[in-house]
Amino acid sequence: MTQAQKKQDVQMPIQFIDLAAQRARLGTAVDKAVINVIDHGGYIMGPEIDKLEKQLAAFCGAKHCISCSNGTDALVLVLRAKNIGPGDAVLVPSFTFAATAEVVALVGATPIFADVQEDTFNLCTRSLAQALQVAKDKGLTPRGVIGVDIFGQPADYSEIEAFCKANDLWLMSDAAQSFGASHQGRKVGTIGLATTTSFFPAKPLGCYGDGGAVFTDNDELAEIMKSLRVHGKGTHKYDNARIGLNARMDTMQAAILIEKLKLFPQELIDRQKVAERYEQGLKDVATTPLLRQGNTSSWAQYTLKLNGGGRDAIADALREKGVPTAVYYPKSLHQQTAYKDFPSAAASLPVSEKLSQQVLSLPMHPYLDTATQDYIIDCVREVLSN
Ligand SMILES: *Cc1c(COP(=O)(O)O)cnc(C)c1O
To answer: Which of the listed residues 198, 249, 257, 297 should we mutate to test ligand 1's pocket, taking the one with most ligand atoms within 8 A of CB?
Structure first.
């Protein structure tokens, strides 16, 4: 089939993430759930919150789930619960979304940037060791590591855990992109002292607004975070035991997530199928994502590494054919204006720097039909071979 013939079977415009297709699949379930909340009136911490937390904890096998306002506040809740502040250092990857480092600076501590691996784009333990030394050299107290599961694949936690244990650091997993994935048989949500996630609409499990959650098996930490998310409440609402924040999830978002969670297991299977089809169709023209043995991914993004240069021209050519792409992330954090003065593991972080020039993400969602995907593959192949 020619590209023009393939295009005839494709519904234009192609969506990068197709929330409308998911909405069609959901039918009226979400509408009913939202109207139910409007009618029962428990808009803040209504019954759906507790129900969702129990379902999410059961989904991944964590003891506690603390729902909250978004994935960024989820990170803040853990840092505040661990009393992280001025003089403390937290080691983070540079190739990630800003929130991972932002929260460390926000609580007054110092983020130290480590480099990532060329094949998985996730934290490199060798660079972590250098970051730890930098923290010590600067007279900071190293407290913990935030591992990020970039694009949906868990970081190399077995190695990172050993590093944390050897150096008396806690491990937090920023799983904003990887809820639903697993590492060596362990579900995301059960790794480290605490795992955070985001339900931003474009994440693998998204709500219709902002939302997030923290997972932990630690009873004491869970209690503190439940207090922190409601202004540091003590035994009752107007008893302030600690300085907290307003970080609750809206009941309506919980009601939406309860319905979306029902589709989520099948969506994970369908995302994996999309990833496999891309892999088959593109592995000889670009570097396709490597899934480390023992990992499953929730495929938040399907990100190619371009072998040559010319990314902008490639993205433009694909856009002209109706294929949307995105660049996550065009700049690593240690190169961003807001973060460039924080320390890094080394004078340069070559892998993060190179990746930010090479990566290109393709449309990825569970409702990508094979005709559309074959058209995308055809277009990418043509553009990359020109
Ligand atoms: C999206 C994201 C966050 C922040 O989540 P929000 O819900 O948007 O606050 C944090 N870390 C990573 C890696 C993310 O991708």
So the answer is: 198
Ligand 1 near 70 CB (within 6 A): yes
Ligand 1 binding pocket includes 244 (Cβ within 6 Å):
no
pLDDT value of position 6: 87
Task: Report how far apart the first and last C-alpha atoms of the chain are (Å, whole number).
Answer: 19
Helices (H) and strands (E) in the chain, counts: 13, 12
Q: Is the pLDDT of residue 378 over 80?
A: yes
What tokens appear for 44 in the block?
Answer: 């803040």
Predicted confidence at residue 25, as pLDDT, reads 95
Ligand 1 pocket mutation pick from 75, 76, 97, 116 by most atoms within 8 angstroms of CB: 97
Q: Above 90 in pLDDT, residue 238?
A: no
CA 199 to ligand 1 center in whole angstroms:
9
Contact 306, 281 (CB under 8 A): no
Indicate the pairing of strand 194-198 with strand 170-174.
parallel
User: Could you give the CA distance from residue 87 to residue 77 in angstroms, rounded to a whole number?
Assistant: 19
Query: Is 138 within 8 Å of 342 (Cβ atoms)?
Result: no
Tokens 């290109």 belong to which residue? 360
Residues 6 or more apart from 45 whose CB is under 8 A from it? 230, 248, 251
Mean confidence (pLDDT) of the chain: 97
Whether the Cβ atoms of residue 113 and residue 344 lie closer than 8 Å to each other: yes
Give residues with Cβ within 8 angstroms of 49, minimum separation 6.
Answer: 67, 248, 249, 251, 254
Percent above pLDDT 90 for the chain: 95
Please state, for a pLDDT cut of 70, what percent of the chain lies above it: 100
Q: How many CB atoms lie within 10 A of CB 320?
A: 10
The pLDDT-based confidence of 65 (bands split at 50, 70, 90) is very high
φ, ψ of residue 226 in degrees (nearest 5): -65, -35
User: Whose CA is closest to 322, among 20, 23, 1, 9?
Assistant: 9
Nearest 5°: the CA angle 72, 145, 128 is 130
